[in-house]
Amino acid sequence: MADTLDRSIIDREILEPVRKASEWTSPRGINTDGVPWRLWEKAKQLAWDPAELDFSQDARDWAEMSVERQTAISVLAQQFMIGEESVTLDIVPLIIALSDENRLEEVMYLTTFAFEEAKHVDFFHRWFAAVGADPVELEMRRRERMESFGLPLPPLDRTDGMFQEELPRVMRRVLVDRSPEAILDCAVTYNQFVEGCLAFSGYRVWGELFDMFGVLPGMREGLRLVRRDEGRHITFGTYLARRVVAAHPELLDFAKGRLKFLRDLWYRELTGMEPPAEKIDASGVTAQIEAARESGELPEGGEMLYMFKFFEYLDIQVEARSQVLERAATLTEEETLEDTGAEEAEADLLGV
């Protein structure tokens, strides 16, 4: 960790990097066959602008919604928006670290990555404004409902948690620590867990809610575009994690342990309770969700049903991503650079 590193190494290798004129990548040839370049090309081809989305029907739909519907949707929307803000703020250290390793292709792709995360914040912010919803007021409503269900309430000014502490700490570590473990922790925490587990599970629950309600076409279109971007981001994280684990298979247990630690951390943060010892099985609430789907309306406290489904999906993703890393430990680093394993893994995990 940074507090155990020799200060002279930090000053010499990180704060005062030396680049040789003979080592620029672009004159010698950019690798256009690897995963980062393929993602770079897709990012250019699939660009979109949140300002072009039409939220007029969303505003009408929102005004006609029950409090239960508004609460169920706004909780996820606000969590997504905060998450997108956090990853926008926290991606830069990884760009710097990979820059110092002279990995031009990876850095080029990550510049689009940073832009797209900021664009997602823009999208959610525009949607809240368009429908006339106040995120702060909706958060207070959510807290009131949590209290009514007997759930503990985290302090409003908390400084611990996934986005307040854990993600910034992991990402800023690579400003002063360029070890394979530090780079791998970025890929596991940011891409594999926050985006691959949290965001994907949330999007899946979101999709099921929208299938039930059939409303908010502007939000649904925006989410389709966000998910398309995030699919590339998660693919890059899978590629980066596979590359590091293939070169350092002794780090496999560290990576798998981090996924489980982060899952438990998020459970405590979202519920205020200790995570269960066994995997969450939400089959018991499926009948209630199906009944709500048929009626087209959530029952009182219905959003809590979807929380169970979210954690079930989260467990599935954590286990599946651990298996992807296990397979990477059997490869060479060179095999991970240009093969399609990262893309294939994400197509399977995300169902695309």
Summarize the structure in words.
The chain has 352 residues and is mainly alpha-helical. The protein has one domain: Ribonucleotide Reductase, subunit A, CATH 1.10.620. It contains 16 helices and no strands. Helix 3 runs parallel beside helix 7, helix 3 packs antiparallel against helix 11 and helix 5 runs antiparallel to helix 7. The longest helix is centred in the middle third of the chain and has 34 residues. The protein starts with 6 loop residues before the first helix and ends with a helix.
Q: Give the termini distance in whole angstroms.
A: 38 Å
Kindly estimate the percentage of residues that lie in beta strands according to DSSP: under 5%
Average pLDDT confidence is 85
Q: Can you identify the CATH superfamily?
A: Ribonucleotide Reductase, subunit A
What string gives the helices and strands in order?
A: HHHHHHHHHHHHHHHH
Low-confidence spans: pLDDT under 50, at least 5 residues?
none
For the biggest sheet, the summary is:
none
Predict the CATH topology: Ribonucleotide Reductase, subunit A
Examine the secondary-structure arrangement and name the CATH architecture: Orthogonal Bundle
Number of helices: 16
Structural class: mainly alpha
Could you name the CATH class? Mainly Alpha
When the domains are counted, the total is: 1
Radius of gyration: 21 Å
State the helicity in percent bands. over 70%
How many β-strand stretches? 0
The coarse overall form would be globular
